[in-house]
Amino acid sequence: MERFFAIVNPAAGGGRSARLAGPALERLRKGGLEVDEVTTGAPRDAVRLARDAYVRGYRRFLAVGGDGTGHEILNGIFGGATIAQHAGPERRAAQGLTAERAAGDRVAMGFLPLGTGNSFLRDYTREGAAASLQALLERRTRTIDLMRLSHATGEMYSFNLVSVSFTANVGALTNRHFKPFGHLGYLLGVFVRLAQLRPLTFAVRCDEDQEWDRRPCLFLTFNNSAYTGGTMWIAPNADPSDGLIEYVHWGPIGRFAALRMLPTIYDGRHMQHPQASRRAVRHVEFDMPSAVDVMVDGEVLALQCRTLDIVPAAVDVYI
User: Fold this and answer.
1) CA distance 220 to 162
2) pLDDT averaged over every residue in the chain
3) Helix orientation angle between 16-30 and 129-137, rounded to the nearest 10 degrees
4) What values do phi and psi take at 189, rounded to 5?
């Protein structure tokens, strides 16, 4: 089906999406795109709406909101055990497209980034919605990878990052109390978590590693794209199209050192710190005895992670 299926999250960006979505979609229609539009009414609605649209034949989707809206749509399309914890491989296979089949059944996705985070598109442009609109009007796409996270109750897909420890704890606090303040809210979450700072240990091993890495950390991030929190350049070497996961490990540092380091996250200089390390991998295993806060594409969930894999060239993105 050549028509676009637009899923609008009116709550994104503190209500900004509700105000701007109509004019943006009208511009696309005037440019010759056929767009069918639905609006979400509750968290996780976009998962169901995207899944149903895929079954009805739609292969072009528009995420109108923030990174969380895009995350839900992709998980609805690709049919894994999503945030809603759908059970069983047989049911998952019936719900939609699997990432391995994507090459033969291409899905294309556009973003109208009207939300708070909008980290993913920053790898390509600083112009946000204007650049996305232009790419859609010009029918211009890039092929990107996805990451597939397996956890104790199912699996989900990520196009931006999977992160644990400090970054996830900040995200959980921000989403709970400070999200209406946008980037300022995220900084408030950072300062509160710095006051509560303590190093944690997460056992991971990558690719052909034989030994578990149990080094204490400030945070671990597994990145498909370079930015998080809107403008934090957390993984400068990440490339959404290279078939690799950019793994960033930050060892434990004190509160005041972390506070001094904070500005460097915005320009990538944090990777010069002696406690920072990176590597490009394809497969990650986790040894988690219980669920912890995990940030996935800006959303924080309580998950007991098992594996993370790269799915190369899984989807086309208008950018």
Assistant:
1) 9
2) 87
3) 20
4) -60, -40
